[in-house]
């Protein structure tokens, strides 16, 4: 970037994105109008900054405007899973998909699906738990290049996990995932996000639709360098008796936000979210969750744990909204953090909005430091200080996955915390 | 083996040890008795190297080396072991993982071979059985949800496993019923050896019926005020600490 461009970028970090938003003649009318709406939304809102409540601790505008990017890589191996169905996404394109697929699973790059079955996309893309005021959703809709459409047929239980490896190196990229599970379908989806130097901002918007009785297990492991700024948004609608169980492990980046907005739409629906942040020095990471209980007798759990090193920032925002008709709601959230330096920062914000009677909602937050007594106890038995600290930190973080019901998901998440690839937990 | 000379130590700026001297030879068991607040626990933490216990004077020479210059983990690797009065709970770390990590860390420092998971299980099972600890306890997080007696047995198991050269037992009898006390004492006695020294810190004489010391010292006001043979413990039981403190 030359000096003039750099100054302009600081003043209007949105421009580089707005300039890239041009009409694509080859797309159907319904998509062109979605793109238009996205562009209008983004032009109106701009990049969200600290004056927007939901972005108070994650000032995306300031970070994108900052052209001074450091470049430290992150070593976190991708999960090594037996019999996984592998997809590789890089340079804004789907580069590799499995040669054969189990019965009931359909998997296509978004651009291919657009040619093959546009009506499925027209019905779902941008329609799932739509966000009419979310700048990143608008940005992504206007700019997405490609992505993946995953569909599981009714009653199909896909044993092999679907492993999608993203590489965010290079320019800013905007990608999209659409996951549609028909009634009683079941799938395990694993996302691994890697990348070193990236552009000013990349985005990923995922849309999930879980039909009655469907089950999705979702793991997300991040290994992003400090040169990557990434904002992601996962939107989901979960029908009667369907369940979503998610686990995430982030080591932070220049900016890494995982925003999850799920709506429990039918009685018996459940959502469990479990996340870990292990934020290295000078990094930023953010888990923002909004769960809407829109039907009676739904269950939601949020368990997040963050460990922040010196000058690191971990943000955990969890919100539960219980709608007027959602009697019998059972919602709990727990946020815990450990600060490892005097200039480390963890921002934890649990929120509850309850409009129904007869509900059980609980939330708890605790931020502290490493237990000095436990550290001394381990050292007094001969365990070197570094190893003792690592052991205590791992134990603290892994507790975020204590209640994960899916055994494979739990083992993979715990291995990711330890920076291991092993599927099986260590004896 | 251990030579403590004129040791002064403060906690939060308050002087607790005020010129403590003590000499312990290999193969000996020394008991340190004293009233509450006399500095018994401070002595044990100073020997183990806990932060916040500042040595302001004197010296501690262990096997010819300045013990106070070493980190807690280096002391442990050289064979110093503190059985805690209040063993610490470590949520999320299984007892088994903790024990194996500790043993192998010490082995590494001493350039001994590390013990693999299978070997380790064999060793720890045998030692745990002798202390009436079942495997379910070993799978639980370190000391989490353990009763007072279980915690003390766990300390004894760690000692049996790590085979220290100098063991400091800080009020190992507190919180134990008579059966647990016997079990722990048996475990300790089994470790008595010509190349090993022990310092047994206790408030009551009761423990010394089971772990019979070679020497008994009375700690009062941060100093050793009297030393003698095992009979001193019995005398104290009759006369109490106050008469002794006065005599000093």
How would you sum up this structure, described in words?
The complex is a heterodimer of chains A (427) and B (248). Chain A is an alpha/beta fold. Chain A has one domain (3-417). In chain A, 22% of the residues lie in helices and 38% in strands. In chain A, helix 3 (29-45) packs across helix 7, helix 5 (110-116) crosses helix 6 and helix 8 (372-380) crosses helix 9 (385-398). Chain A is globular, with a radius of gyration of 21 Å. The model of chain A is unreliable at 422-427 (pLDDT under 50). Chain B is an alpha/beta fold and 248 residues long. Chain B has a single domain (2-247), classed as 3-Layer(aba) Sandwich (Rossmann fold), CATH 3.40.50. Chain B contains nine helices and twelve strands. Chain B has helices spanning 40-48, 72-77, 95-109, 117-130, 135-139, 148-162, 178-190, 231-239, 241-247, and strands at 2-11, 14-24, 29-33, 53-62, 65-66, 80-83, 90-94, 141-142, 166-170, 197-202, 215-220, 223-228. A six-stranded mixed sheet of chain B has the order 6-9-10-3-11-12, sandwiched between helices. In chain B, helix 4 crosses helix 6. The radius of gyration of chain B is 18 Å and the shape is globular. At the A-B interface, helix 8 and helix 9 of A face helix 2, strand 7, helix 3 and strand 8 of B.
Features:
heterodimer; A: 427 residues; alpha/beta; ten-stranded mixed sheet; nine-stranded mixed sheet; 19 strands; 38% strand; globular; disordered C terminus; B: 248 residues; Rossmann fold; six-stranded mixed sheet; four-stranded antiparallel sheet; 9 helices; 29% strand
Helix and strand topology:
The complex is a heterodimer of chains A (427) and B (248).
Chain A: H1 3-11, H2 15-20, H3 29-45, H4 60-65, E1 85-90, E2 93-96, E3 105-109, H5 110-116, H6 118-124, H7 135-143, E4 146-152, E5 162-167, E6 174-181, E7 186-195, E8 202-210, E9 215-224, E10 229-238, E11 243-250, E12 255-264, E13 270-279, E14 284-293, E15 299-308, E16 313-322, E17 330-339, E18 345-354, E19 360-368, H8 372-380, H9 385-398, H10 407-417
Parallel strand pairs in A: 1-5, 4-6, 5-7, 6-8, 7-9, 8-10, 9-11, 10-12, 11-13, 12-14, 13-15, 14-16, 15-17, 16-18, 17-19
Antiparallel strand pairs in A: 1-2, 3-4
Chain B: E1 2-11, E2 14-24, E3 29-33, H1 40-48, E4 53-62, E5 65-66, H2 72-77, E6 80-83, E7 90-94, H3 95-109, H4 117-130, H5 135-139, E8 141-142, H6 148-162, E9 166-170, H7 178-190, E10 197-202, E11 215-220, E12 223-228, H8 231-239, H9 241-247
Parallel strand pairs in B: 3-10, 3-11, 6-9, 9-10
Antiparallel strand pairs in B: 1-2, 1-4, 4-5, 7-8, 11-12
């Amino acid at each position: 970037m030359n000096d003039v461009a750099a100054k302009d970028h600081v003043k209007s970090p949105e421009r580089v994105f707005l300039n890239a938003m041009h009409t694509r003649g080859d797309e159907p009318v319904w998509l062109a109008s979605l793109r238009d709406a996205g562009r209008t939304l983004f032009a109106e809102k701009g990049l969200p900054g600290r004056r927007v409540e939901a972005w108070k601790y994650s000032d995306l505008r300031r970070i994108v405007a900052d052209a001074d990017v450091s470049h430290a890589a992150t070593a976190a191996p991708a999960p090594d899973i037996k019999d996984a169905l592998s997809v590789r996404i890089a340079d804004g394109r789907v580069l590799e998909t499995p040669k054969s697929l189990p019965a009931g699973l359909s998997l296509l790059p978004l651009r291919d699906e657009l040619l093959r079955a546009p009506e499925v996309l027209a019905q779902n893309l941008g329609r799932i738990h739509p966000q009419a005021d979310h700048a990143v959703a608008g940005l992504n809709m206007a700019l997405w290049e490609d992505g993946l459409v995953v569909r599981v047929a009714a009653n199909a239980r896909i044993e092999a996990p679907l492993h999608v490896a993203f590489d965010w190196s290079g320019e800013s990229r905007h990608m999209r995932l659409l996951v549609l599970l028909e009634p009683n379908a079941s799938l395990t989806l694993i996302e691994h996000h890697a990348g070193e130097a990236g552009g000013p901002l990349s985005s990923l918007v995922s849309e999930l639709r879980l039909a009655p009785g469907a089950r999705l297990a979702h793991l997300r492991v991040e290994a992003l360098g400090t040169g990557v700024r990434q904002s992601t948004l996962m939107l989901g609608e979960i029908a009667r008796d369907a369940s979503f169980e998610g686990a995430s492990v982030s080591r932070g980046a220049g900016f890494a936000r995982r925003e999850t907005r799920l709506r429990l739409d039918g009685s018996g629906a459940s959502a469990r979210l479990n996340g870990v942040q292990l934020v290295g020095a000078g990094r930023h990471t953010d888990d923002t969750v909004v769960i809407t209980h829109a039907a009676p007798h739904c269950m939601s759990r949020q368990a997040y744990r963050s460990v922040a090193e010196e000058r690191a920032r971990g943000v955990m925002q969890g919100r539960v909204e219980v709608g007027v008709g959602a009697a019998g709601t059972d919602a709990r959230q727990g946020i815990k953090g450990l600060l490892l330096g005097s200039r480390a920062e963890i921002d934890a914000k649990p929120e509850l909005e309850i409009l129904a009677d007869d509900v059980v909602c609980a939330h708890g937050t605790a931020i502290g430091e490493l237990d000095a007594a436990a550290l001394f106890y381990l050292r007094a038995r001969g365990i070197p200080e570094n190893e003792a600290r690592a052991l205590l930190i791992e134990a603290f973080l892994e507790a975020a996955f204590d209640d994960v019901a899916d055994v494979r998901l739990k083992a993979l998440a715990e291995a990711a915390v330890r920076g291991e690839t092993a599927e099986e937990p260590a004896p | 083996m251990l030579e403590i000379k004129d040791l002064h130590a403060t906690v939060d700026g308050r002087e607790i040890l005020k010129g403590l001297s003590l000499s312990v030879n290999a193969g000996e068991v020394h008991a340190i008795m004293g009233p509450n607040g006399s500095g018994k626990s401070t002595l044990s933490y100073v020997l183990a190297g806990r932060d916040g216990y500042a040595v302001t004077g004197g010296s501690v020479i262990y096997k010819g080396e300045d013990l106070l210059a070493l980190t807690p983990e280096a002391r442990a690797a050289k064979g110093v072991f503190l059985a805690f009065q209040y063993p610490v709970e470590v949520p999320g770390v299984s007892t088994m993982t903790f024990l194996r990590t500790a043993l192998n860390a010490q082995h590494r420092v001493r350039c001994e071979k590390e013990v693999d998971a299978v070997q380790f299980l064999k060793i720890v099972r045998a030692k745990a059985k002798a202390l009436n600890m079942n495997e379910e306890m070993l799978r639980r997080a370190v000391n989490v949800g353990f009763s007072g007696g279980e915690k003390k047995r766990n300390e004894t198991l760690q000692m049996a496993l790590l085979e220290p050269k100098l063991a400091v037992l800080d009020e190992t009898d507190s919180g134990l019923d008579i059966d647990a006390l016997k079990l722990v004492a048996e475990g300790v006695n089994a470790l008595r050896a010509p190349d090993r020294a022990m310092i047994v810190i206790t408030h009551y004489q009761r423990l010394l019926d089971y772990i019979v010391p070679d020497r008994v010292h009375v700690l009062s006001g941060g100093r050793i005020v009297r030393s003698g043979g095992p009979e001193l413990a019995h005398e104290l039981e009759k006369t109490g600490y106050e008469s002794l403190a006065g005599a000093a």
